[in-house]
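name: query_chain
kind: protein
chains: 1
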Amino acid sequence: MRTDWLNEPVSPYVLTNQNSPAFWLIDNLWMPLAGSFLTDGNFCFIEQVCGVGIGGPPTHAHPSDEGLYILEGQCTFNAGGQTVKAGPGAFISIPRMVEHSFTVDVPNSRLLNWYSPGGFEMLLMSIATPATERKPPVPNSLPLPPRWMVEECSREFGQIAVLGLPFADPPTKDNMATPP
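structure:
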């Protein structure tokens, strides 16, 4: 594990959900507030507003620890064979390489999503559409990115398809479960 970063200063900065980059992907609005390029690769931190269309990704894994904090709304998380409904104030921790998925139970649910080490935001920015406003897109108004592009970016940035390829395969009942 890399520890030399503890002695390396990273420049301070301020981003808000009004001046950060913003992207649309799977009917969600994604606003990266801390990217790996700003944190020396240590983590990324994203505010996410989940629309009413696709919602969450099919079961997948990645080599980063992931955490999600629910600000508004409700989502159902499947991780490591457990299923949990989570609402405002809930924190979900998903260790690296644990298979997981989630569904959006309440339209416009707001989440804070972080990954350590960072890098997920690079996948997101590579395949998403720049948002033209700070709200989720009209449901099903944007096509999913081309499968070949999602496959290549998933290889590059460490996303592992399990029951479906997130951002290429729409979630279904069959590709959202996780084994115990």
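note: The radius of gyration is 15 Å.
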